[in-house]
Design brief:
alpha/beta, Aspartate Aminotransferase, domain 2, seven-stranded mixed β-sheet, 15 helices, globular, binds 4'-deoxy-4'-aminopyridoxal-5'-phosphate, pyridoxal phosphate, porphyrin biosynthesis
């Protein structure tokens, strides 16, 4: 599959944009080669600047639950833009959005919109610090919470792919307040809490980790964290930026039945428009400005175009809960088909799946932590990635990212993917 136009545009991009991309995870650094420049997308397919058709398993890194260019979303965006792209005043659509999200997510009394997932997670930490009067935060190795300073310590996603999980530019003072535990290890959290008694404001995690591949919480892990938080007066924060509205209408909070004190959302909540949000109980959120002393703001927060897009998507998900059964069924077909093909070609693979989030790791299983994830054969993944691309399947360009299935990944799309994997692995065996 040739892509000369993408190569030309990438070269051009490098002249004006650092590394040619506006977000590192797009750069193909983990797999090598040139990122494709997309022109449009519809349903389960993306079309690049060379006219190649690609089955999409990134889904804009999560939000395209109903597929690209979902008609109700497109219509909502068009109508909203006709009424102005921004007012900088309250609007009724913000009320409707807040009401809808609070109705979907258990224990969410109040929600504040932001413009990205990063802003949302940063705000949860500030709220937790303001609420508890403590400074330290516990996060988990391999989880990614955006590029806020406090989170760029042993981070996942692009930071991990680039081999820079801890970034220069983060001050020693900030780094010292971020403590890192092992995902799925309650003991590692207990130890940190005991060593830092009365100093920890919050524990933040991806309740389904999607930034080191897909790694679900082990039975009892979330419950154990809840209990430890209660014992130590620490707030529990679920970063639902990826899994919110995806693993269930009410996200991981609903799926696992464990109640966090604060939640961060992003991506999905704006149907692909630049949106994030954070929220929690009335009591915790009462510290947020202008009612409380913890400052948080945004000129474009609650933007009418973004809110309209999000409302259209979430409204659809609420109206049609069968979507989640369909996603489960299609994703299981993909999972089983891929496992069969890997087995046929004698490939060692471990995998995890939560609903429509999937992770394949080229190593022995089980994969339950960052240490396990690190065993995956990244060189093999890179070859597999490029062979799949040649067959018209666009996987996330990193061994450490989850694959996302949309409602438009029907039987034909899934079968095409499985056949492509069969061909890709056959061609790899020859080289
Ligand atoms: N948290 C999680 C779990 C994420 O996956 C991401 C983005 N990949 C973020 C936070 C940051 O969101 P954004 O890129 O919108 O700032």
């Amino acid at each position: 599959m040739p892509y000369p136009n993408s190569q030309k545009y990438f070269e051009e991009a490098g002249k004006f944009i650092p590394g040619g991309v506006n977000s590192p995870a797009r750069a193909f650094k983990g797999v090598g080669g040139t990122p494709l420049f997309m022109k449009k997308a519809e349903g389960a397919f993306m079309y690049d600047e060379d006219g190649n058709e690609l089955i999409d398993y990134i889904g804009s890194w999560g939000p395209m639950i109903l597929g690209h260019a979902f008609p109700a979303v497109v219509e909502a965006v068009r109508n909203a833009a006709l009424g102005s792209t921004s007012f900088g005043t309250p609007t009724v659509i913000e009320n409707r959005m807040a009401e809808l999200v609070c109705s979907l997510v258990p224990g969410l009394d109040k929600i504040r919109m932001t413009n990205s997932g990063t802003e949302a997670t940063m705000s949860t930490i500030r709220v937790a610090r303001g609420y508890t009067g403590r400074d330290k935060v516990i996060k988990f190795e391999g989880c990614y919470h955006g590029h806020g300073d406090a989170f760029l310590i042993k981070a996942g996603s692009g930071a991990l792919t680039l081999g820079q999980p801890s970034s220069p530019g983060v001050t020693a003072g900030t780094a010292k307040d971020t403590l890192t535990a092992d995902y799925n290890s309650i003991d590692s959290v207990r130890k940190l809490l005991e060593e830092n008694r009365d100093e920890v404001a919050a524990i933040i995690l991806e309740p389904v980790a999607g930034n080191m591949g897909c790694v679900p919480p082990k039975k009892g892990f979330l419950e154990g964290l809840r209990k430890l938080c209660d014992e130590h007066g620490v707030l529990l924060i679920f970063d639902e930026v990826m899994c919110g509205f995806r693993v269930a209408p009410g996200g991981a909070t609903e799926r696992y039945g464990v109640q966090p004190d604060l939640m961060a959302f992003g991506k999905v909540i704006g149907a692909g428009m630049p949106v994030g949000a954070f929220g929690g109980s009335d009591e915790v959120m009462s510290v947020v400005s202008p009612n409380g002393p913890v400052y948080q703001a945004g000129t474009l927060s609650g933007n009418p175009v973004a809110m309209s897009a999000g409302l259209a998507l979430l409204g659809e998900l609420k109206k049609n809960p069968h979507i989640y059964d369909d996603l489960e069924a299609q994703s299981a077909k993909l999972e089983n088909g891929m496992l069969e093909v890997f087995e046929k070609h004698g490939i060692t693979v471990a995998n995890n799946r939560v609903g429509s989030m999937l992770g394949f790791f080229f190593c022995e299983g089980p994969v339950e932590s960052f240490a396990d994830v690190s065993r995956t054969d990244t060189k093999f993944f890179s070859r597999f990635f490029h062979s799949m691309l040649a067959e018209g399947v666009y996987l996330p360009p990193s061994a450490f990212e989850a694959w996302f299935v949309s409602h438009k990944h029907d039987d034909a799309v899934i079968q095409r993917t499985i056949d492509a994997a069969d061909k890709a692995l056959a061609s790899m065996n020859k080289t």
